[in-house]
Amino acid sequence: MYMANELLVIDNIHKTFPVKAGFGIKMEATAVDGVSISIARGEAVGLVGESGCGKSTLGRLALRLLEPTSGSVYFDGRNLNLLNKQELRSLRKSMQIIFQDPFASLNPRMQIQDIITEPLLIHGMAKDRDLEERGAALLEKVGLPVDALRRYPHEFSGGQRQRVGIARALASGPSFIVADEPVSALDVSVQAQIINLLEDLRDELKLSFLFIAHDLNIVRHFSDRVVVMYLGKIMELAPAEEIYRNPSHPYTEALLADIPVADPTLKKKHILLKGDIPSPTQIPSGCRFHTRCIYRYDPCDKIVPRTTDLGGGHFVDCHLRG
Amino acid sequence: MDLLDIQGLTTHFFTRSGVINAVDNLSLAVQKGSVLGLVGESGCGKTVTALSILNLVPYPGKIITGKILFEGKDLLGLSAEEMRSIRGARISMIFQEPMTALNPVFTVGDQIAEVLTAHRDVTRKEALKSAADLLQSVGIPSPEKRVNEYPHQLSGGMRQRVMIAMAIACKPALILADEPTTALDVTIQAHILELLGTIQQEMGMAMVLVTHDLGLIAERAHEVAVMYAGRIVEQAGTKELFANPQHPYTRGLMASIPQPGEEGHKRLRTILGTVPRLYDLPKGCTFAPRCDLKTGKCEIEPELVEVKPGHLVRCWEAK
User: Fold this and answer.
1) d(CA B174, CA B221)
2) Given pLDDT bands bounded at 50, 70 and 90, which one contains residue B273?
3) What rounded mean pLDDT belongs to chain A?
4) Which of A142, A162, A168, B225 is most buried, by the most CB atoms less than 10 A from its CB?
C-alpha cells in the first residue's frame, strides 16, 4: 500500500542475470531475490552485505538503471516500470546516484564544470551562460575551490573527486540519492570528511538516501534504518541503533563480530562462519544462509524462513530468532 | 640480534613529473616471532618499504641508500642469485590483490609446487603432493581436487589462502603481508587473520603487517609504526600507541574512525586537508599544513625522538 510519506517503494523486486558456464550451458545468477523496502522522505536507509548480496544491483534497480526481472519500484507514487523514456528521464532529476569509484565515475576528458553542470543541460534547467555560476555554487556546497571548475579530474585526489561526484548528483536538485559505497575507495581520514559532508547536505537539503556500504560502522553513523542483505535477500531490517545493540540474525551478529576493533585492550571474539559465500548461481535451499550458520538446525536447509516482526520496526528472517 | 634491521632506507621513484620521495631515511627493526604493524594511508610508503625489503621495487623506483640487515646480512649487498634464494624461502610476501598476484594460466597446485621446486631438492611430483598438504593446512576443503584448479575458479578468500600457502611453503622466518585482507569481505577477513595468527604462532614466524586498518593493528600487531609521506612519524608497542598516541596524525587517524561504541549522530572528527603530493612535499614537518598544533618550530623537520622507552615520535610538541 502506497503511503504519502514514502518517497521510494521497492516492491518484491527480482533480478537475475544469465551467466554462460561454458559449452553453451546457461546458468542464472540471482542477484536480487524478492526484496521489498520503502524509504520515507528525508530518511537514510543503510544497506549492508558482502560480495554477491545484491546491494549494488538493488541500488541500480531503485533508479531503474537496470530493468527488474519482476517486481516494481515506485518513486513518489509513480511506478517506474510504466514510465516511457521521456517521463523516466524527467523523473531522474529527482533521483540521483553517487558512485563508488572516484577514478572511474568522472569522464577524464571533461572539465569539472562540464561534469557537474551536465545534468542541468540535459534537463533544460539552465542556459549556457548560467553554467559557470551554477557550477561555482555547487562546488561551494561540496567544499571545493572555484578554480576547480576549469580543471580536469586527474588533477584531484580521490576524496576531491568524490566531492565532484556529489556535486554532480546534487545539480538537478534531487530528493533521493543512491550512494553506492561512496567512501569505500577512500582513505580513512578522507572518509570522515565525505561522510560529514553528506550528513550536512542531507540535513540542509532534506535528502533521502539509500546508503550502500560494506562497512557497518559507517552505515550506522549515517543511517536511520539498516537493512542487511545476503545472497539477494533481506535477512534483517531495523532502526540503526537497534541493529547494533540487538542484532537478531546470526549473519548480522557475525558481520558485527568480525569487524576488527581499534582497541588492543578489548579481546574481541570473532564469529568464524563456516565455509565461503556461495555463488549466486547456486543459492542454497531453505534459508540461504544455512550453509554457513553456526546455529543451523533442522528446518534451516528445508524451509525458507518467514519474516518475523520483532516489534519497534525490527524484522528478521530466521527460524531460530524469528 | 634483530631478525630484520632496516637502517636509513631511502627509496625514490624517478618519474616525469619529478622525483617521488617514497621512503625517506626509514629505520625499523623486527624481532624474531613478533608482528610489526606498518600503518598509514595511501601513498605513505608502507608498500614500497615492504617491496624494498625484498628488492622488488618496480621501475621507475630505485633504492638510493640504506641497509637491510636480515639475520645480520645486508640484503642490499647480495647478488641477484643470493637474493632469489631468500625470496620465497626465508622471507616471503603476501600481496593485496590475490587475483592479480596469482598467475591465471597455471593451476594453484603448480604455483605452490613452484615455490618448493625452486628452493628445495624435490621432484615435481613430491612438490605437488606437498602443495595439496599445504592447501589442507590453510583450510581449503577437498585439497586434492583444488590443486588442479585455476585461480579464477576460486573465490577471493580461497585465492588468498593459496597465496598464504605459497608464502609458508618453505617455512620462512619472516612474512611480509601487504594489506592481506583489504580486498576481502569482513567475514572472510576474520578467517584469514585467524589463519595467519595461528600459522605465525605455530611456526614462530615474524610478520610485517602492512595495512591502513587500525583495527587489524590493534588485534594482531605487537609493535606499530605509523607512516606519513614516506617517513615514520610514530612508533611504539601496540597497547602504548593506542593508549597514548602522541603524534597529531596518529591521533587524527584514531579519531576519524567511527567507533562501534559510539552512539547517536556525533560528527566524525576529521583531519583537515589531504595527503601532500609526494613530489611536492612541504618543507619542514610534512604534516604541518594539516596540523592543529602547528607552530613556528615546525618549519624545521623534527627528528624521531624517544619520548618514553620504546615510544618514538616525530613532533616538536610531543612530551
Assistant:
1) 14
2) confident
3) 92
4) A162
Find the radius of gyration of the CA atoms of chain A. 21
Q: Is pLDDT at A1 greater than 80 in this prediction?
A: no
CA distance B29 to B50: 13
Using a CB-CB cut-off of 8 Å, the residues of chain B touching A158 are 42
**Contact in structure between B226 and B214 (CB atoms under 8 Å):** no
Fold of B4-78+174-188+202-313: Rossmann fold (3.40.50)
Note if the bond before B60 is cis, omega within 30 degrees.
yes
The least confident of A42-46, A59-63, B95-99, B301-305 is: B95-99
Contact A165, A102 (CB under 8 A): yes
Residues in chain B: 319
| Per-domain residue ranges of chain B | 4-78+174-188+202-313
Which residue in B140, B186, B254 has the most chain A C-beta atoms within 10 A of its own C-beta, making it the best mutation to test that interface?
A: B186
Cα nearest neighbour of B237 on chain A: A264
A6-94+174-317 to CATH, choices 3.30.413.10, 3.40.50.1820, 3.40.50.300, 3.10.350.10? 3.40.50.300
Q: Which of B193, B186, B161, B179 is nearest to B97 (CA)?
A: B179
Q: Give the containing element (helix H, strand E) for A75.
A: strand A70-75
Question: Residue B230 CA to chain centroid, in angstroms?
Answer: 14
A and B: number of Cβ contacts within 8 A? 123
Supply the ipTM of this predicted assembly: 0.81
Q: What's the CA gap between A168 and B267, in Å, rounded?
A: 24
Categorise residue B88: left if φ over 0, alpha if ψ from -120 to 50, beta otherwise. left
Strand partners, B69: B5, B74
pLDDT surpasses 70 at B260: no
